[in-house]
Write a structure and sequence with these properties.
By secondary structure, the chain is of the alpha/beta class. It is built from eleven helices and eleven strands. It binds guanine. The site of guanine has 9 residues, from strand 4 and helix 7.
Length: about 290
């Protein structure tokens, strides 16, 4: 019988831990604050930002939301980030991606202070992650881990999946998910392979996986013939089809072969938000000298 790995349930536990922590911090005069920036009218981004703002409210984190028009000048966005970098009530800054084409996302991510980079997307934080070899080193560094890859690790750990020594295959090589997920899984002592759109005979590679992470952004891309019996599947995809949301995995068929699998929705998504809240609480402590 396949185990459903519920990101909703696991994230609820993490959020409860964080709510207790923010209550404790408040007694010491520290209220964690997260600034979110949404540029334009992308419907999916509006939903994600709305979820982030609501979760902040629930956990006792102050939310400072900034909505900018689609045609905002890059210089004005950078000016806002500069103001937020200097605001002592703001501990974390998140600019929702994707940005309109006339704005260079690299410039925006670099402008966010590395100390407030709760997405973990600043080159300094990415470099810090790249330079660490073990989870112990990563955890000692008090650095901000990218939220989705960190959420994947927490899902696996909290579902008692053996990562050390496992063959982990990641489908997708993005900076946001695929590449950092590979680094974290390596730090957890998995043997990691990344596949992408140019991989020859992708099924031959994915069938080796004990742990398969699908993050390629193509609905139902991973089919049952691409996995081996007993695989643990983490589906990062969120694809909007006329019939509703679906992941990058053909869930109904793949679940018949898997030992454990995440649903979409209710899998990785809630964990990304929980890890963002975790980073914001961490930032509030770091910036308050705790
Ligand atoms: N767009 C999709 N996922 C993310 C994320 O984790 N952070 C930001 N800033 N934008 C995103």
């Amino acid at each position: 019988m396949v185990e459903l790995i519920s990101g909703t349930e696991i994230s609820k536990k993490i959020q409860a831990e964080l709510k207790d922590e923010t209550a404790q911090l408040r007694t010491r005069g520290i209220t964690p604050g997260l600034a979110t920036i949404l540029v334009g009218e992308d419907e999916a981004s509006k939903v994600y930002i709305g979820q982030k703002v609501k979760t902040c409210e629930r956990l006792g984190i102050t939310s400072f939301h900034h909505k900018l028009p689609q045609d905002v000048k890059e210089a004005d966005l950078l000016k806002l980030i500069d103001t937020l970098n200097k605001d002592s009530k703001v501990h974390g800054i998140l600019c929702q991606l994707p940005l309109p084409k006339h704005i260079k996302a690299d410039n925006v991510l670099l402008a966010i202070s590395p100390d407030k980079d709760v997405d973990g997307f600043h080159l300094l934080n990415m470099g810090r992650l790249l330079s660490k070899k073990s989870m112990k080193e990563i955890e000692q560094e008090k650095m901000y881990l990218p939220c989705t890859p960190h959420g994947i690790i927490q899902l696996l750990r909290r579902s008692n999946v053996n990562i050390a020594g496992a063959e982990a295959v990641i489908v997708g090589r993005s900076n946001i998910v695929g590449k950092p997920a590979a680094l974290l899984l390596m730090a957890e002592n998995a043997t990691v392979t990344i596949c992408h759109s140019n991989t020859r005979d992708i099924g031959e590679v994915t069938r080796r996986a004990d742990i398969l992470v699908a993050a390629i952004g193509k609905p139902k891309f991973v089919t049952a013939d691409m996995v081996k019996d007993g695989v643990v599947v983490i589906d990062v995809g969120v694809n909007r089809l006329p019939e509703g949301l679906c992941g990058d995995v053909d869930f109904d068929k793949v679940k018949e072969k898997a030992k454990a699998i995440t649903p979409v929705p209710g899998g990785v998504g809630p964990m990304t938000i929980a890890m963002l809240m975790l980073n914001t609480v961490k930032a509030s402590k770091k910036l308050s000298g705790c």
